[in-house]
Write a structure and sequence with these properties.
Layout (H helix, E strand, L loop, with lengths): L17 H9 L4 H4 L1 H5 L20 E8 L3 E9 L2 E7 L10 E11 L7 E3 L7 E16 L3 E8 L3 E8 L8 E6 L3
Antiparallel strand pairs: 1-2, 1-6, 2-3, 3-4, 4-9, 5-6, 6-7, 7-8, 8-9
The protein binds manganese (II) ion.
């Protein structure tokens, strides 16, 4: 968790950059905690999916996997703090600016999941086939609890994408994924 240490009276607020915020977030939670829910849903002897170690620095990656499960959907995963923040997008990724789609946040996935393709056996969590639909790097422009803006530089997708959490009465895992203006 982010912790208050002391007030920096030596720095004006304008010098607090987005990179700093992102850097702080990276230190938020160790991977083991992030991936608890992921691991709890799976039997690694039964599924070909990765267990998850942790990752080193470098450019931030993203992946979009076409997941032909009970219902076809697209899983958008953005690297954050050594794991992959994840959303299931049932109606496909918007590709024209102004288009928006519902994106349901799911549990963080391990970094290695970005290269996973394969078949998850019947009876297992997420049973069905997983194929990489797009992958690449991204640059975070804004990274807040309820709003994320990134510039994607992928094989298929390029440009600005925005995720905004929807405020609904009971659930807080519903977001909107929008293609921004470039
Ligand atoms: Mn999925």
């Amino acid at each position: 968790m982010a912790r208050f240490k002391h007030l920096r009276d030596d720095k004006p607020p304008s010098e607090c950059t987005i990179d700093q915020i992102i850097e702080d977030k990276k230190m938020d939670t160790p991977n083991t905690d992030k991936l608890k829910e992921y691991a709890s849903k799976r039997h690694f002897e039964e599924t070909p999916e990765p267990k998850g170690e942790e990752k080193k620095g470098g450019e931030l990656i993203y992946v979009i996997q076409e997941h032909n499960a009970r219902r076809l959907h697209y899983d958008l995963r953005l690297e954050s703090g050594g794991a992959l923040k994840s959303w299931a997008v049932p109606k496909g990724i918007p590709q024209k600016s102004g288009e928006r789609r519902l994106a349901v946040q799911t549990e963080d996935h391990p970094y290695e999941y970005a290269s996973f393709e394969g078949t998850i056996a019947k009876g297992q969590y997420g049973a069905g086939t997983v194929k990489i639909w797009d992958k690449g790097h991204f640059e975070p422009k804004l990274w807040e609890k309820d709003k994320i803006e990134v510039t994607l530089n992928g094989q298929t997708l390029k440009g600005r994408y925005i995720l905004v959490r929807l405020k609904t009465a009971k659930e807080d895992n519903a977001w909107l994924l929008l293609k921004g203006k470039d």
